[in-house]
């Protein structure tokens, strides 16, 4: 991509500070996740207990939310390329406000489904718009001598993880009132985000070109290097999804309860918040983008192997949790390498002017891989094979994905 004249200010040490726009977008990610995760962790229980939905219907509704979000990221990204990020972000925030407010008052199945679809589509608008602009600004920051683009994207990841950590705490506090209050406060957070962006987000961002929606998908589908990155990233997301599929089974087996899951999730979040930037800085000074992703995928594979190799011992209690904790730690460190690096790589593979489309496609294609792979993983876990086999098979997935990474 060409250098962008963004007016980044020089800081001591000949590095440039982050531009005001980057500051805004990174804080946006923090606010998005606080508002979203204040509601999402409590949605399943609300649908089952308060609304009275059957278990299969709860799963269906949650799946619809994922589909309306991840599956439509490519649409949101294309719209951001066509109209700029400001109108797309503002529209997404407005839809999220309406969706949360509707969900708080929804008591019928059709109303819940409508609200959930609206919530998911809102993210499909604003998330690829914000993510693509952060990636574009990160490249400009790097080209201006401000430091590695990966470090900027790592800071973006930290902001998102911090929001994912604070959001459920806020939601749990508000749940003492009722679920409607949780939804309305979540909507209120997005009202503040909408107002802040209406005031601060520029009408036109220097260097950003607007392109027609039509004509972008053909070159994307012929871009083998980009699709290979999508597949490798999808393998990582499939592995990360095991925090919610394979890990609960392992914790239940080891302790007879899923209570320790909360501590393991907290461990993962705290590791990202405290270690992401030092890890990115250390790796960025030593490894290329490809080697960073290779290292991350190997760490993730090692996490699955730790549990797989320990399963035949049949440890229980505290000792039985040690392999699960090792899995979480290795998976999280692998995530620290893979997630920001994959986003940093996309601008080098994207067609000029269509970074939004390619950023959205990265999420949509990898989300489809997770959808298909999760079904296969569930079948594998319920297959009755020896306890170590599913975990060792899962270890092969990220390791095999290394062969898909672009060579250059």
What's this entry about, in short?
InterPro entries: MFS, MFS_dom, MFS_trans_sf, MFS_Transporters. The protein is built from 16 helices and two strands.
Characterization of the model:
With 408 residues, the chain is mainly alpha-helical. It has two domains: 19-207, Up-down Bundle (Growth Hormone, Chain: A); 215-408, MFS general substrate transporter like domains (Growth Hormone, Chain: A, Up-down Bundle), CATH 1.20.1250.20. 76% of the residues lie in helices and 1% in strands. The chain has 16 helices and two strands. A two-stranded antiparallel sheet has the order 1-2. Strand 1 and strand 2 (15-16) form a beta hairpin. The radius of gyration is 21 Å and the shape is globular.
Summary keywords:
single chain; 408 residues; mainly alpha; Growth Hormone, Chain: A; two-stranded antiparallel ribbon; 16 helices; 2 strands; globular
What does the secondary structure layout of this molecule look like, with pairings?
Layout: E1 10-11, E2 15-16, H1 20-37, H2 43-49, H3 55-70, H4 73-83, H5 85-105, H6 109-143, H7 149-174, H8 179-200, H9 217-221, H10 224-240, H11 246-255, H12 260-284, H13 289-310, H14 317-349, H15 355-381, H16 388-401
Antiparallel strand pairs: 1-2
What is the distance, rounded to the nearest whole angstrom, between the alpha carbons of the first and last residues? 16 Å
**Structural class of the helix and strand makeup?**
mainly alpha
Strand order of the largest sheet: 1-2
Oligomer: single chain
Query: Architecture of the largest domain, according to CATH?
Result: Up-down Bundle
Element-by-element helix/strand order: EEHHHHHHHHHHHHHHHH
Q: State the helix count.
A: 16
Rg, alpha carbons: 21 Å
CATH homologous superfamily (4th level) name of the largest domain? MFS general substrate transporter like domains
The structural domain count equals 2
Q: What percentage of amino acids are in beta strands? A: under 5%
């Amino acid at each position: 991509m060409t250098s962008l004249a963004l007016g980044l200010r020089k800081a001591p040490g000949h590095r440039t500070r982050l531009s005001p726009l980057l500051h805004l977008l990174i804080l946006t990610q923090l606010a998005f996740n606080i508002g979203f995760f204040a509601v999402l962790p409590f949605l399943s229980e609300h649908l089952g207990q308060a609304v009275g939905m059957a278990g299969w219907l709860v799963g269906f509704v949650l799946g619809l939310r994922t589909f309306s979000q991840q599956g439509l990221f490519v649409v949101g990204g294309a719209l951001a390329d066509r109209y700029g990020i400001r109108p797309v972000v503002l529209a997404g925030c407005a839809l999220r406000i309406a969706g949360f407010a509707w969900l708080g008052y929804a008591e019928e199945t059709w109303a819940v489904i409508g609200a959930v679809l609206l919530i998911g589509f809102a993210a499909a608008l604003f998330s690829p718009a914000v993510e693509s602009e952060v990636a574009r600004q990160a490249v400009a920051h790097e080209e201006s001598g401000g430091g590695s683009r990966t470090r900027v994207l790592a800071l973006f990841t930290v902001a998102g993880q911090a929001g994912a950590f604070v959001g459920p705490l806020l939601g749990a506090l508000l749940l003492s009132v009722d679920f409607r209050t949780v939804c309305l406060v979540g909507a209120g957070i997005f009202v503040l985000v909408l107002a802040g962006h209406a005031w601060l987000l520029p009408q036109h961002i220097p260097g950003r070109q607007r392109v027609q929606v039509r004509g972008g998908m053909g070159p994307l589908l012929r871009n083998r290097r980009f699709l290979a990155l999508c597949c490798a990233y999808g393998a990582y997301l499939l592995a990360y999804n095991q925090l919610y599929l394979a890990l609960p089974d392992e914790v239940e087996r080891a302790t007879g309860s899923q209570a320790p899951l909360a501590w393991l999730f907290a461990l993962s979040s705290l590791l990202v918040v405290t270690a992401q930037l030092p890890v990115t800085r250390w790796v960025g000074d030593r490894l290329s983008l490809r080697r960073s992703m290779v290292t991350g995928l190997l760490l993730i594979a090692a996490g699955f192997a730790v549990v797989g190799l320990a399963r035949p011992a049949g440890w229980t209690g505290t000792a039985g949790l040690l392999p699960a904790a090792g899995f979480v730690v290795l998976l999280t460190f692998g995530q620290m390498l893979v997630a920001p690096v994959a986003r940093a790589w996309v601008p080098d593979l994207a067609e000029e002017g269509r970074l939004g489309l390619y950023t959205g496609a990265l999420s949509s294609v990898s989300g489809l891989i997770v959808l298909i792979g999760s079904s296969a993983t569930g079948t594998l876990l319920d297959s009755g094979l020896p306890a170590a086999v599913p975990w060792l098979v899962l270890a092969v997935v990220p390791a095999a994905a290394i062969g898909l990474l672009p060579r250059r």
